[in-house]
Amino acid sequence: MFKKLFTQAHRGQIISEIERLLPAFRSFARGLCGDRFVADDLVQAACERALERLDQVSDVAGVGSWVNRIIYTQWQDLLRKRKSRRTKLVSFGHYQSTQQRSNRAGEHQTIAKLDIEKGLDRLSDDSRAALVLVTMAGHNYQEASDILGIPVGTVASRVARAKAMLADYLYPTHKNNQETIEYVRLSDEQNR
Amino acid sequence: MSRTDDKSLSCYLDGELDYPHAKEVTNQILQDARTQDRFIALATSQSLLRSYGQTELHKEVPSKLTQALQQAKRTKWFPKEQRTILQVAAVIVLFVASYLIGRNNRVDQLYQPSLVPVIPASLEQTINTVLEYQKSGSVQNWIELQGGESARITPVQSFRGSEGKFYRMYLIDMTGDGTTQQFWAMASRKGKENWHTKGVFATDTPGSI
């Protein structure tokens, strides 16, 4: 009983943490599926499932990875269902056209964002998931490995492949050696 | 550096390489023009992707997402079915506790009537007077003129019960037919010179006072 009470005392903390991380979950889900409505549905379903299984979380610090894993699982389920029904998922391309229509209505939208969305849409689901987890959600390879349920080496390969494909699509228009050297210096300090 | 080294560059950008390997990649980037170009391409696309993610982070969260969480926060600690069980358990615990506390505090129940002698009316009047006016330790004799029985009443202790009643314990030595027997007795005050003896116990009664 006391153990139960102790566990229940953490319930509020975990829910608060989920609430705090909602924007990050939405960002991850958006990167994963490419459509903000589908993303919100994914996050909502994941939060509901998380609330049902709060007793599975022992550490509040791990809530982010845990919910992201649920979001990813929900996304995989959704993909399977859609594929079995032979229906096409809403893609970044579809969303992009929606955005372009809204641009005409005056909504601010940068070209870079459109390019990124188009580039992400070209990636495979697995590669996109790994890339979004590491680059957009800020997880390291080990955390991404836990969330996706694959080895760390596979995460590294998928992220690299996705980055390469994205870079091929978004090949930079500016080549400045000085900028390169600055990038190298910063990355070197980061690695050190 | 060939295209197969995209993995190293990617890990380098993500800070996932150990220092010796990272240093090696750094040197390759600085020395090889193709690697430089590739690095810029990867770094730029990664930077754009991060910015895209940051933009998403600052968008307003729809109320449908926050509502469920806020409702869950307000939810009681225990689910409905557990709450019912706990309520029933709490009632039982309260009942048992109140019974035990009441049992310990109620002198009426502690001293169950177990009258050994039959107290004559005239003796009862004497007891009332003694308990009303005599100090603990003082002795008062009583004699029945017709039957030749006699008694000696000695108040022993006075106290006040939790319910506010006054109680007195007294010893009574009753003599009749040539024998004397001692009893403990407990009386509660009903009014002036009106004491009600709750119980009388022979001093040799097992478990008595």
Overall description:
The complex is a heterodimer of chains A (192) and B (209). Chain A is mostly helical and 192 residues long. Chain A folds into 2 domains: 90 residues; 69 residues, Arc Repressor Mutant, subunit A (Orthogonal Bundle). Chain A has 10 helices and no strands. Chain A starts with a helix and ends with a helix. About 11% of the residues of chain A have low confidence. Chain B has 3 domains: 55 residues; 35 residues; 91 residues. Chain B is rod-shaped. The interface between A and B is large, with 63 and 52 residues.
Protein structure class of chain A:
mainly alpha
Task: Note the main sheet of chain A.
Answer: none
User: Please, how many helices of chain A?
Assistant: 10
Number of domains of chain A: 2
Mean pLDDT of chain A: 76
Instruction: Supply Rg of chain B.
Output: 46 Å
Order of helices and strands of chain B: HHHHHHHEEEEE
Strand order, largest beta sheet of chain B: 1-2-3-4-5
> Helix/strand-derived class of chain B?
alpha+beta
**Separation of termini of chain A?**
49 Å
Report the sheet with the most strands of chain B, covering strand number, pairing sense and barrel closure.
5 strands, antiparallel
Q: Kindly, what is the distance between the CA atoms of the first and last residues of chain B, rounded to a whole number of angstroms?
A: 102 Å
Q: How many runs of DSSP E, i.e. beta strands of chain A?
A: 0
Strand content of chain A: under 5%
Form type of chain B = rod-shaped
Which parts of chain B are unreliable, with pLDDT below 50 for 5 consecutive residues or more? 107-115, 205-209
